[in-house]
Design the sequence.
């Protein structure tokens, strides 16, 4: 795992550098105005200068509010190409793209995808999501560090945050400077408290209460650092744990934290939801199958760079489409189950499969 991380860091650095140069040589005004309209559904609450930690993290199995990430397997199969497979996009083009992906995943070119090959692919695509997050973080950081000195104080951030919530930026800044009461409503106050907590967690030792770009990245994307991953797990357990033993039983896991659903009763009777959660709890998250999920088990589960998880995911993905039961994926299988892998259906999956090569 450490090797993976190192490799990733090195690749990341060069890719980030390259993209940075490319982006900067682009005329910002030349971008089409409706670019954001083409974005994926999971990104619809993100703009380019998002300064709030997102609830949903691409390539991470659980969301910050304790929900399972429904799009996880598609995210780790498609990587940054997620947006390419819109539901209304051209089936012929999707088919072609899926065939291209198949030939890439099939590393040894025997026209069949093994669990190992899929695992390797999943790890690669997970890295892509990290790289994307890092790139987005550049814009986000610039938005909270307008003077560009490379450091952001908690007060600077909290002013930007309140401004994004509709407060008058100058007024808030003035009040904070003079130590006046901001007169925030309870909800805003609560969000601010939890952001502050996270802020101090993201401040690497020696703590100077300033975040640089890298620290800001782990503030927005806790999946990037071991310490923040632990913090995220602690937050989730705190929200789901009812008896305060810092562990989760099945019943704690299948009831949602208070306040995250509008209609708790309606959610409780959603059998599918409960069944899915129960299955995930028993089969995957509870690693030693003793009926209790500890923080360590949850951390293991949520770590996007965990190779063991990636192998399990690979086997699961193969099993879904493995019609001839050879524990491998062939092209016709993946085309037939296109909707599972890409989110978009191919009507004519069986057409001339063998002519494509
Ligand atoms: Ca192969
Ligand atoms: Ca408990
Ligand atoms: Ca356990
Ligand atoms: Ca097969």
Sequence:
């Amino acid at each position: 795992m450490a090797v993976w991380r190192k490799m990733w860091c090195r690749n990341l650095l060069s890719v980030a550098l390259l993209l940075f140069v490319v982006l900067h040589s682009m005329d910002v005004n030349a971008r089409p105005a409706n670019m954001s309209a083409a974005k994926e559904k999971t990104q619809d609450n993100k703009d380019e200068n998002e300064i709030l930690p997102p609830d949903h993290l691409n390539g991470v199995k659980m969301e910050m509010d304790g929900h399972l990430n429904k799009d996880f397997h598609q995210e780790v199969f498609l990587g940054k190409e997620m947006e390419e497979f819109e539901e209304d996009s051209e089936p012929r083009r999707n088919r072609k793209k899926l065939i291209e992906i198949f030939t890439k995943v099939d590393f040894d070119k025997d026209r069949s995808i093994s669990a190992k090959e899929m695992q390797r692919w999943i790890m690669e695509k997970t890295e892509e999501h990290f790289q994307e997050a890092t790139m987005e973080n550049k814009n986000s950081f610039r938005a909270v560090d307008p003077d560009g000195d490379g450091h952001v104080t908690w007060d600077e951030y909290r002013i930007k945050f309140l401004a994004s919530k509709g407060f008058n930026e100058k007024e808030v800044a003035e009040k904070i400077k003079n130590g006046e009461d901001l007169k925030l409503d309870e909800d805003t106050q609560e969000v601010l408290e939890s952001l502050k907590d996270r802020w101090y967690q993201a401040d690497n030792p020696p703590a100077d209460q300033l975040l640089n770009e890298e620290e800001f990245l782990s503030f927005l994307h806790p999946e990037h650092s071991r310490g923040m991953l632990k913090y995220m797990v602690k937050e989730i357990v705190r929200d789901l744990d009812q008896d305060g033993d810092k562990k989760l039983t099945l019943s704690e896991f299948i009831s949602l934290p208070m306040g995250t659903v509008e209609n708790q009763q309606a959610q409780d009777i959603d059998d599918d939801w409960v069944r899915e959660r129960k299955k995930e709890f028993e089969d995957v998250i509870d690693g030693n199958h003793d009926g209790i999920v500890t923080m360590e088990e949850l951390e293991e589960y949520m770590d996007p760079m965990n190779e063991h998880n990636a192998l399990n995911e690979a086997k699961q993905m193969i099993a879904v489409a493995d019609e001839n039961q050879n524990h491998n994926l062939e092209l016709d299988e993946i085309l037939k189950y296109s909707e599972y892998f890409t989110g978009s259906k191919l009507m004519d999956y069986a057409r001339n499969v063998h002519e494509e090569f």
